[in-house]
Amino acid sequence: MIVMKFGGSSVADAERVRSMSDIVRQYMPRRPVLVLSAMGDTTNHLLAAANSALKTGIVSTCKIEELHLKIIEELGLDVKIMPLIGELKNLLLGISMIKELTKKTKDYLVSFGERLSVRIASAYFRKTGVNAKPIDAWEAGFLSDDNYSQAWLLKESWELIPQKLIPLIEKSVLPVVTGFIAKTKDGVITTLGRGGSDLTATVIAAACGAEEAQVWKDVDGILSGDPRIVPSAKPLAFVTYEEAAELAYYGAQVLHPRSMQPCVKTGTPVLVKNSYNPSAPGTRIVAAVEKNGASKPVRAITTRKNVTLVDIVSTRMVGQSGFLEQVFATFSKYGISVDMVATSEVSVSVTLDAAYRLDQLREDLLKIAHIDIKTCKAIVTIIGDVERSSEILNRAFGVCLKLGIQVQMISQGASKVNISFIVNDTQATDVVRGLHKEFFDF
After folding, report:
1. Please, are residues 33 and 175 in contact by the beta-carbon 8 Å criterion?
2. Is 186 helix (H, G, I), strand (E, B) or coil?
3. Which domains does the chain have, with CATH numbers?
4. Which of 216, 274, 297, 350 could form an S-S bond across to 388 if both were Cys, CB 3.0 to 4.6 Å?
């Protein structure tokens, strides 16, 4: 068996649903399980409807109904979605009355997108001769904790998922499963956070011992650079789990690092394909990629803008124990996640997401250190063969020197596949283009 996941843009309208269906039918001999995201902008429409109910008391599902009923009409389907729409209206009415939208309620709210998506897609498959069954994720064995908006799956899911899905596959049924959502043991709907639909697919693939998980996007795979910055960016035939995770963490939007974890556990390959260009070979993510002497030292280059650089210098004498412990305990106190770290005996430099409020953090850290906070920075990350780090650094800093750009911090990741450094936000695009030209365009 294989698992095939399609994102929202791949099922955004009737034409995309037909195209998705054509792709899936070609893979029917390989016994697929299908995982779908919400259609098009449905999640945004749901959140907007909730915000309207919360702030104005107006309950409206017009945009959600319009999008899905139009797709149903254009596909010529007979599928009943109004019971779900009615359930949604009741939820919005509740939000309008109690004037509250908690994470728990928001998870219930956004679940309607995936639930509508699988019902419409399954109806179209049945119309075209495929025995498809819509399945809400909890019916497929997805049990989670109650960490709403960022739920973690329980260990029981690994046993339940194959028990629920494999018998259907053996009966030549195409299971069409909602991505992104799960339920607690108490029956409360949760969501799996960013990249949740990809995670749904990789968990199914790993738990069921699938041949591979296919993640269908709107790009030709994982590229050597962001095509919006580097038009000449090239698809990569293979990357390792570690490389894919580092690329995702430091700016590439193809896959979320969390979605890779189930397949890392079982060694299940992940194939990233383009639903708009199915003939493109895509990128296969595997445990290891064989190296040879002709291999390029760099696999890909990415950037993440709008980060904050914090320089922390101890006010105590050299050799004072516990300095780093106090620094990171302070970050933990405020729930702040650190991206990059560079340290010495009396100082530490870290990068943080710019969304964090740092006033209280600064106040606490000033008790033990001098603090310098610099905003509007960017992380530029080179994913490559770090056994050739001297060559990579020599060429990378040569590019920065030619551009007249001063590198403000550097860090080599513990994964041994990335080298990251800090430049100003306004310089990141030029640096990425320069690096891509140096390592790929020759």
Report:
1. yes
2. coil
3. 2-217 (3.40.1160.10), 298-439 (3.30.2130.10)
4. 297
